[in-house]
């Protein structure tokens, strides 16, 4: 099984940009080491804090690819935004043990 490294590298670039904007907000302070915040939802976005181990999962990498196609590197929420329904994401993340 091969891991598609470009998607992981792209996700890291997005995370570095969103976390290095110079401001330290209370929302960014509550993320434990080894986790990152993402925003999920079709209309209203909900914030989730998930394990970085999720980045190596092929199904999550596919979601990252969709996010890249829809948003490029301009994520409107200031963090990584995933373009899928909250129900689909929570089902996928729970199956992968991301929470």
UniProtKB/TrEMBL annotation:
Annotated GO biological process: response to auxin
One Pfam family in the UniProt entry: Auxin_inducible
Annotated source species: Helianthus annuus (Common sunflower)
UniProt record similarity statement: Belongs to the ARG7 family.
Superkingdom of source: Eukaryota
Protein name (record): Small auxin-up RNA
Lineage: Eukaryota, Viridiplantae, Streptophyta, Embryophyta, Tracheophyta
